[in-house]
Design a protein that fits this description.
Chain lengths: ~170, ~100, ~450
């Protein structure tokens, strides 16, 4: 069981690397040139289609991380969110749910509230960058959905996150 | 005798409220230094209710009977002095903190 | 042993001067021992052939209830010198004294064949050679035999300890399965000892922190069924449920009933800010009780309904506060180092149980309602979410183990800090809430 879980994690890391590297070194400029440029090489919906949710997730970056018990956006987080705001402005068909999370070092209720603070910080930032508030909703999962499972700071750091999850269509 | 009763005085099952109650009990003793079981009476108590006093008394009575079952270590020649005993059980030092 | 006798002699000499000239010898005992009280429970007498098995089972549950408190120790049946073969024949006290049984529980079971069961019992103080209180009889159904056993044990426990009973009670909790990263959660109820588990929801949505109503007939809980955390109320008998609080753009969680069952207090998050609100359980306009930019959550009523204890990080980290039930200026009660959360007022009103985080460890603790006499009862990687037994003597909580294979389970501990033990559940378990004593 443990071995299986590790194998799955490894492949997902490889997949991520495979997607990330070409973007970073090859088609990085495509983003600025717009979604239609170079369409012949792009498989619509795949990670190298700049209008795709996969591109948003992997290239723009769908998540920002927080310090312990904090909901303040770091400079790195702001950079990621600038990218998210640009993408959302260009792809106005999408709405998003911002999911706030906490590490396991906290009580359940407090962590729900803390996750909400984090998600809200992201929402406010995106709105300040011009994304319509009506396209964004927030939800907190507290410590209910960790992505890293160890009980060390290395894992906690990745769990203290806000993830912008795209959904198709305008919000109701 | 006090030490012997002490060893049998089990307050572990008493509620924290009952542990605030001191009870004085009177005992009549047989010549063989065993207590007369049905002579054990509650003389007075410091409890707020009869119920709490009753529970405190029950543990005191059990201690006396249980440890006195083979007779206490008392000098037979002085039976007159210990024919009647009044024993005060004060748990205030044992309160669960 | 020799030394002990010498000590006795010395004490005897010391005690002599205390003696009055006339009248009784006066002795003060101010030391005792704290050890489990030894008791014996022979199989109950089966008064009809069909009752044979149940007569044994009931005696076993009574014994397990008493032993489980840590205040009693069962004398094994193979040590018995005499047996109880008839409920009304005289008890051979000498036989029970010889094995140091201080309390003896004798009972009888009869089954009428119509599914009705009748159980009677007597409690004896073996060393006094007499009954403690009058014999009692409980009637119930065949399926409800465990409840009858719990009622017998409750009566014994109360008579000996002076505490209010708590065995005939239930616990609602979150049953957990699946790996840590995608844990499946279902609402479940069970008897306080882990028996008779019943699942109330499926695992399609995350459910959190259920709370019993004061009469035990309804449960408040948080569910992600709508995609967002929202408070739901569930009827235990029909398992019917409805969303209680559903303002768009908000999240609601951490609900709790008022002592009269009419009002719900809870946390509502709007624009990233979490405050405490109250609303009638029947529905109606929420009333905001706190308005601070900090996190206010985990509210719990005092048993008289006049005050609310809750946690807030307005000071910079989580601490406990008390405010009037209608809102108003909160008074901080926790001041120790570390963070304090999830306060719960005891049913007796005298104590508040809480979760404390300090130096990377989690503790369950209790303090008086003015914050004094703080006492930590447990310590582990992650302990949280205390709930009180109906008599205010025992606390149940969630303990989660460390690491990727971490699992949650339920534990209970006496308010003295003694008798820490795991509550057996067939799945992982978290967020217990103890029901009141059943009727």
């Amino acid at each position: 069981m443990k071995i299986l879980a590790r194998a799955v994690m490894l492949t997902s890391v490889l997949a991520l690397a495979a997607c990330t590297n070409p973007d970073r070194f090859g088609s990085g400029n495509d983003v600025n040139l717009g979604a239609n440029t170079g369409a012949g090489a792009i498989v619509p919906g795949s990670a190298n289609d700049p209008a795709s949710p996969a591109y948003f997730q992997q290239t723009v970056g769908d998540r920002v991380l927080f310090a312990v018990d904090q909901s303040t956006l770091t400079p790195e987080a702001r950079t990621v969110l600038d990218g998210q705001a640009n993408w959302l402005m260009q792809n106005s068909d999408y709405t998003a749910v911002i999911e706030g999370h906490a590490d396991e070092q906290g009580t359940r209720e407090y962590n729900l509230a803390l996750g909400a603070r984090r998600a809200n910080a992201v929402q406010e930032y995106l709105v300040s960058k011009g994304v319509a508030g009506s396209r964004l909703r927030v939800v907190s999962y507290g410590k209910e959905r960790p992505i890293e499972l160890c009980s060390d700071e290395a894992c906690y750091a990745k769990n203290r996150r806000a993830v912008t999850v795209l959904a198709a269509g305008l919000s109701s | 005798m006090a030490l012997s009763v002490q060893r049998c005085w089990n307050v572990g099952e008493l509620s924290s409220d009952a542990l605030r109650v001191a009870v004085a009990v009177s005992i009549e003793m047989n010549r063989d230094a065993t207590p007369v079981a049905d002579s054990i009476r509650l003389v007075r108590h410091s409890g707020e209710s009869e119920l709490l006093a009753r529970q405190a008394f029950d543990t005191a009575r059990r201690a006396i009977i249980r440890c006195g079952v083979n007779g206490f270590d008392l000098p037979a020649e002085k039976y007159g002095q210990w024919r009647e005993i009044e024993m005060t059980f004060d748990p205030s030092n044992m309160r669960i903190k | 042993m020799v030394r002990f006798l010498t000590l006795l002699a010395a004490l005897w000499l010391m005690a002599l001067p205390v003696q009055a000239q006339n009248g009784p010898l006066r002795i003060t005992i101010d030391e005792g021992v704290i050890e489990p009280l030894p008791f014996a429970v022979p199989d109950f007498v089966a008064e009809s052939a069909a009752a044979q098995q149940m007569a044994q089972q009931i005696a076993r549950v009574v014994a397990a209830d008493l032993t489980g408190t840590g205040l009693f120790r069962e004398i094994p049946q193979d040590a018995f010198i005499s047996q109880i073969t008839s409920f009304n024949s005289p008890v051979q006290f000498a036989d029970w004294r010889a094995i140091n049984a201080q309390a003896l529980i004798a009972g009888a079971v009869s089954m009428e064949g119509d599914g009705r069961v009748s159980v009677k019992f007597r409690l004896y103080d073996v060393f006094a050679g007499q009954e403690m209180g009058a014999g009692l009889q409980f009637d119930g159904t065949e399926q409800g035999w465990r409840r009858i056993a719990h009622k017998v044990a409750d009566a014994v426990y109360s008579r000996i300890t002076g505490e209010a009973p708590y065995f005939d009670s239930r616990v609602v909790f979150v049953a957990e399965s699946g790996p840590k990263g995608e844990r499946q959660k279902r609402l479940a109820v069970m008897d306080y000892d882990g028996a008779n588990v019943q699942y109330l929801t499926d695992s399609r949505s995350i459910v959190l922190a259920p709370r019993f109503s004061p009469s035990g007939d309804r449960i408040l809980y948080t569910s992600y069924e709508t995609g967002f955390p929202r408070i739901h109320v569930l009827d235990v008998a029909s398992v019917g449920r409805r969303v209680l609080e559903n303002q768009p753009g908000t999240m609601s969680f951490s609900p709790r009933f008022s002592p009269d069952g009419q009002t719900v207090i809870y946390s509502l998050t709007q624009g990233g800010n979490t405050d405490i609100y109250r609303m009638p359980i029947a529905g109606g306009a929420p009333q905001r009780l706190t308005s601070a930019p900090s996190i206010e959550t985990a509210p719990s009523f005092s048993p008289d309904g006049s005050q609310i204890v809750f946690e807030s990080d307005r000071s910079g980290n989580q601490q406990l506060y008390i405010m009037p039930a209608s809102g108003g200026e909160p008074r901080r009660i926790s001041f120790g180092p570390g963070r304090y959360g999830t306060p719960v007022w005891s049913p007796r009103g005298d104590l508040i149980a809480f979760t404390k985080q300090s130096k990377g460890r989690f503790h369950i603790g209790v303090m008086r309602t003015d914050g004094s006499e703080e006492r930590l009862l447990t310590a582990s990687f992650l302990d949280e979410g205390p709930t009180w037994a109906p008599n205010g003597r025992v606390i149940m909580f969630t303990r989660e183990t460390q690491g990727a294979g971490g699992q949650s389970s339920l534990y209970s501990v006496d308010i003295t800090g003694r008798n820490l033990k795991r509550v057996r559940t067939e799945t992982g378990a978290s967020d217990p809430s103890w029901s009141p004593l059943q009727n």
